[in-house]
Amino acid sequence: MHSYFEAVKMPVSEELVSKVAEDVGKLLKELSDSAGPSGMEEEVRDVIAKEVKDYVDRLEIDALGNLIGIKKGTEGGPKIMIAAHMDEVGLIITYIGKDGFLRFTKVGGVSERYLNAQRVVIKTRKGRVLGVVGSKPVHLLKPEEAQKVPPLEELFIDVGASSEDEVKKMGIRVGDRAVLDRGFKRMNGYVVTGKALDDRVGCAVLIETLKLLSEKEHDATVYAVATSQEEVGLRGARVAAFKIKPDLGIAVDVTIANDVAGVSESDRVTRLGKGPAIKVMDSGLLVPPKVQEYIIKVAEREGIPYQLEVISKGSTDAAAIQLTREGVVTGAVSIPTRYLHSPVETLNLKDAAYASILLSKLIERANKKDLEKLKGDILKG
Ligand code: ZN
User: Fold this and answer.
1) 75 classed as catalytic
2) Global pTM?
3) Which residues does 184 contact at the CB level (< 8 Å), separation at least 6?
4) Which of 42, 88, 208, 230 is catalytic?
5) Given this model, what pLDDT does residue 2 score?
6) d(CA 248, CA 377)
7) Which of 86, 90, 112, 372 is the Cys-Cys partner for 44 at CB 3.0 to 4.6 Å?
8) Largest CA distance in the chain
């Protein structure tokens, strides 16, 4: 295997990792507490734009609502796209009943298992409305019903109104979208929990990567893309990659951490606090082994802990980026996260800090020659 970097280890300091982790924590609170259902990512986009504007040469927003921050490298340098999605799984109002209760369906892969008995925030033209997802009271359920997760048809949103008219006066109409209402909190040490860590943590990693690159010279021009509509089919990333035509694309998203009670060692996929995961495979992407090795080499050189990720269900923006135009050299870096698509997603801030440092170091060292060689090596196999 060709080595792209000399194998000198220069471990990143614990001090830097802690500093970046604290910063990710602050960003993540603001990002996770923002409401950004698919196709309505503007609240999240505003936060990211405010955070990155001083660290990029240019900010663009395209027709799908992607936010593209461009930080120039040297003339003739390669183009590197790093992407993280802004949207979160949510609900959409389908019907307003005469009795003032709302029916809804899902936008993205949120499970009924997590919906019942949750508070939700509905985004209307006029502002936010708080509601709760209600269902038949447990005391009235037959014993066999009580064992089951209530299906979508039996769930409704209660906004405290008693008529259709009252709901309409609150500014709610069919097509309004809602997200889970659950505030971001720190738990023990660097472990945190919140509702939309998927993929606001990726957005925070993008911001931190740009901050780490500030005042650094690099050949590569960075396209940091906060993408829209990932949860409904990787839509934003597809058009952004087409426009950018990157030499290397890397998506930053969460992945399954199944390191919880009662799960055997072999089924844990990834673990919290063991470093970012370098993706090998998911249901939409096979990372070329040479690309995987390229990312691993950066991690090893910098003394950054990492895990390898192989999953057969779920995918990320990287899948769309790879299949753009005649194909893009693509990899992915993931943040191990427990209880995905639930109101209590849980992760370790240090994994996100290490991911930011990994990406900034990769970009700092990338040059046209290496990336062309990487592409050539993929072709050779
Ligand atoms: Zn995601």
Assistant:
1) no
2) 0.95
3) 28, 29, 32, 33, 192, 193, 194, 195
4) 230
5) 44
6) 14
7) 86
8) 70
